[in-house]
């Protein structure tokens, strides 16, 4: 199984003026923590100031779309305009259809938010068949790649390129 990341970023983007939020589920907390840490590390690598990285939690991945929109509105009321949001969740297949329903509905709802909110909403939801797959994608196994880093890089690139 090949687990690769974003690959080479096309240029070094300056994220020093960006406000970026991460909203993450609490299910599968070990994997989530690694992904969130990876995203934050990459945001900082691109110059995003720690004070401009906002992190909040929700119970599970199904709650991510609603919370993403509400977090954006909350920050606006506080006078903070977010340039991108990274919803992070981990869905691992079990023995029922629940996995398929949550994956499909969460994916579609997050995609729609890109259009309705008009800011980059980075798809930071792992949809894995096994816990081991999720651990690999969170960089928790030696030599594997943390996809949270990709999501942090994508947030900066999308915010710099497309937020006017």
From TrEMBL:
Any Pfam family the entry gives: DMRL_synthase
Keyword Cytoplasm among UniProt keywords: no
Mind listing the UniProt keywords for this protein, alphabetically? Answer: Riboflavin biosynthesis, Transferase
Please name the GO terms of the biological process aspect recorded for this protein, alphabetically: riboflavin biosynthetic process
GO MF terms held by the record: 6,7-dimethyl-8-ribityllumazine synthase activity
Q: Which reaction does it catalyse?
A: (2S)-2-hydroxy-3-oxobutyl phosphate + 5-amino-6-(D-ribitylamino)uracil = 6,7-dimethyl-8-(1-D-ribityl)lumazine + phosphate + 2 H2O + H(+)
Q: Which domain of life is it from?
A: Eukaryota
Belongs to which family? Belongs to the DMRL synthase family.
- Described purpose of this protein according to its UniProt entry: Catalyzes the formation of 6,7-dimethyl-8-ribityllumazine by condensation of 5-amino-6-(D-ribitylamino)uracil with 3,4-dihydroxy-2-butanone 4-phosphate. This is the penultimate step in the biosynthesis of riboflavin.
| Subunit-level organization | Homopentamer.
Q: Which HAMAP family match?
A: Lumazine_synth
Q: What is this protein called?
A: 6,7-dimethyl-8-ribityllumazine synthase
Q: Which organism is this entry from?
A: Wickerhamomyces pijperi (Yeast)
